[in-house]
Amino acid sequence: MSQNPGPSAKPGAAYDPFAAWKSFYQLNEESWTQMLEQMMGTQAFAKAMGQWLDNNLKAQEAAKKNVEASLNALNMPTKSEITRLAELIVALDARLDDLSEQVETLGDDVRALRERGPEAIRAELDGLSSQLTTIAELLQAKPTAKPTTSRTKSAGGSEQQ
Question: What is the DSSP letter of 12?
Answer without folding.
Answer: T
